[in-house]
Amino acid sequence: MPKHAAKKAAQVKRPVKSHCHVHTFLILTAILLMALLVVALLLKFSYLQVPAAPGGFCGTSARDACASNADCVAGGCSGQVCESKNVEPYAGTCEWRGCYDEAKYGLSCGCVAQKCAWK
Known about the structure:
With 119 residues, the chain is of the alpha+beta class. The protein folds into 2 domains: 19-49; 52-118, no CATH class.
């Protein structure tokens, strides 16, 4: 057997370590965490997307938990959000629209079925 062939036969081929599976796991984990964050934010602020009746009141109900009307307040910069006084207040964009005027529509912020809502 030639000298170089014997040397080649004696060499043990080691598998190349691939970190591909680790990178794939990290990327998939990051994507999953971002998706969960988006879902959490959509659920937290989904009450802001409640459409108003055309030509009617356009305030929103946070639907925060409450036990009585005393737990609910008109919040937001323009008083357009009916929310619980026991949670962090909603900070809106601070513009006034005539459709936020709850008195004009005969509405008040209160506890409806254990949720803060305009009634």
